[in-house]
């Protein structure tokens, strides 16, 4: 994540949200604006495969839904996780039942995929912010060493590798996925 503005002027989250959207997205936290890195092959493949897998299990049963690059604004921050998973009953809806455009609550599960140019500490800071504000689960994928760091409320982070089974939301209790399963999606042979 690189700083997208060199200005020393501090703006509020409300002022940030009035700025035009950028590609890749800008995020606002700790009083600063950061631009997410542009997706590359591994990142894009993992993101798409995880979203497809989660929604393939969760959407037909209406128990959860995975959103790519969804802006979540709450507690004075506006962050765009790589994948935001909401349990079905927590998806913000309009009075007519249609999904709202603005999400002002944390997701139940946040998934971040580390890009080579990203600061791991800044990404970990984002995940822990979500956990401290109501998220039930966080994953940080690192394709360089094929590991996934797990974040859960009131627990120390835990590193998962190879055949370790990954924790998922309790509403997906019958779904099992290993670290090796996730990183196998990078192979096209």
Summarize the structure.
Helix content is 23%, strand content 24%. The chain contains 4 helices and 11 strands, in the order βαββαβββββαβββα.
CATH class: Alpha Beta
CATH 4th-level superfamily: tt1808, chain A
Give the strand order of the largest sheet, numbering strands 1, 2, ... along the chain: 4-7-8-9-10-11
Number of helical segments?
Answer: 4
Stretches with pLDDT under 50, minimum 5 residues: 1-7
Biggest β-sheet, characterized? 6 strands, mixed
Number of domains: 1
Query: End-to-end span in angstroms?
Result: 31 Å
Report the sheet-strand fraction: 15-25%
Task: Kindly list the characteristics that best describe this protein.
189 residues; alpha+beta; tt1808, chain A; six-stranded mixed β-sheet; three-stranded antiparallel β-sheet; 11 strands; 23% helix; disordered N terminus
Overview of this structure, please?
The protein is α+β, with helices and mostly antiparallel strands. The protein has one domain: Alpha-Beta Complex (tt1808, chain A), CATH 3.90.1570. It is 23% helix and 24% strand. The protein has four helices and eleven strands; from the N terminus they run βαββαβββββαβββα. The strands form three sheets. It has a six-stranded mixed beta sheet with strand order 4-7-8-9-10-11, sandwiched between helices. Strands 1-3-2 form a three-stranded antiparallel beta sheet, with no helix packed on it. β9 and β10 form a beta hairpin. The two termini are 31 Å apart. The N terminus is likely disordered.
Layout of strands and helices, then pairs:
Elements: E1 2-3, H1 13-18, E2 26-29, E3 32-35, H2 41-58, E4 64-68, E5 72-74, E6 77-79, E7 83-87, E8 109-113, H3 120-132, E9 137-142, E10 147-151, E11 158-161, H4 179-184
């Amino acid at each position: 994540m690189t700083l997208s503005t060199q200005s020393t002027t501090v703006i509020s989250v409300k002022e940030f949200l009035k700025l035009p959207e950028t590609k890749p997205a800008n995020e606002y936290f700790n009083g600063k604006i950061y631009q997410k890195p542009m997706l590359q092959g591994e990142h894009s493949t993992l993101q798409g495969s995880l979203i497809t897998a989660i929604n393939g299990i969760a959407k037909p049963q209406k128990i959860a839904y995975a959103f790519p690059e969804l802006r979540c604004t709450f507690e004075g921050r506006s962050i765009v996780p790589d994948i935001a998973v909401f349990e079905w009953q927590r998806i913000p809806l309009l009075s007519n039942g249609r999904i709202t455009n603005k999400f002002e609550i944390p997701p139940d599960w946040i998934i971040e995929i580390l890009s080579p140019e990203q600061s791991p500490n800044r990404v970990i800071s984002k995940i822990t912010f979500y956990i401290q504000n109501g998220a039930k689960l966080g994953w940080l994928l690192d394709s360089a060493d094929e590991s996934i760091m797990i974040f859960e409320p009131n627990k120390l982070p835990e590193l998962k590798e190879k055949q370790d089974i990954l924790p998922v939301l309790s509403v997906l209790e019958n779904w099992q996925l290993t670290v090796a399963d996730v990183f196998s999606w990078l192979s096209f042979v």
